[in-house]
Amino acid sequence: MPVRVAENEKYKFRGDLLKVVVGEQNETFNVHENLICTSPFFDKAMSGPWQESTQKTIRLPDDEPHIFAIYVHWLYYGTLPMFNNKTDNTECLNILKAYTFGDKVLDTRFQNTAIDALVETWTTPVDGKHWYPGLAAIQYVYNNTSESSPVRKLLVDMYVSGAQDSWLRRWEKQGSIPQSFLLDLASKLLGEQDRPKPNFTASDYYIRDSGNVKASPHKKGS
């Protein structure tokens, strides 16, 4: 890794610290104002004649401190501290929460970094297997993003590429699968798959007799 960076990087940490109070327990983070105000959300909060601007304090009561901590780490280091090498889908869910936080604070660079991280987790095998975002991750995305969100398209593309139908059947018993996800999945499969025209044989769809069914009245006798 090179030790030299752009000359103007030396001014990154210049200026006042901004206090950000996050979550129900009021966890406090101190972040350089010049750094965090690259986000239009924070820049607007600190630019007007608002209480936040005069007190150098912003409150985010509805956000999770550990997700904001990921954002702060990214602001300073450009990386996401969430790699855990586990298969319980926690990492995927945190990445997606980070993505939606980036949407809230209008930081598209952070969102794109989250997308990079999601693709990295999917393409990097754990125990020799590729792990997909699970039901909780899909529910979170479809409950917290707009219909046109690119992350929805990414999840659908992942599942079209190699997911198993048994997963959907298992999830149906565990909880509600977002109907919008199923519709997106079906649309992708129907719209882009190179499907040959089938040669239908009616008997392939017959209901098979169990052996206890009486003879049909239309059957001719001998």
From TrEMBL:
<dbReference type="InterPro" id="IPR011333">
    <property type="entry name" value="SKP1/BTB/POZ_sf"/>
</dbReference>
<feature type="domain" description="BTB">
    <location>
        <begin position="15"/>
        <end position="84"/>
    </location>
</feature>
<dbReference type="InterPro" id="IPR000210">
    <property type="entry name" value="BTB/POZ_dom"/>
</dbReference>
<dbReference type="Pfam" id="PF00651">
    <property type="entry name" value="BTB"/>
</dbReference>
<protein>
    <recommendedName>
        <fullName>BTB domain-containing protein</fullName>
    </recommendedName>
</protein>
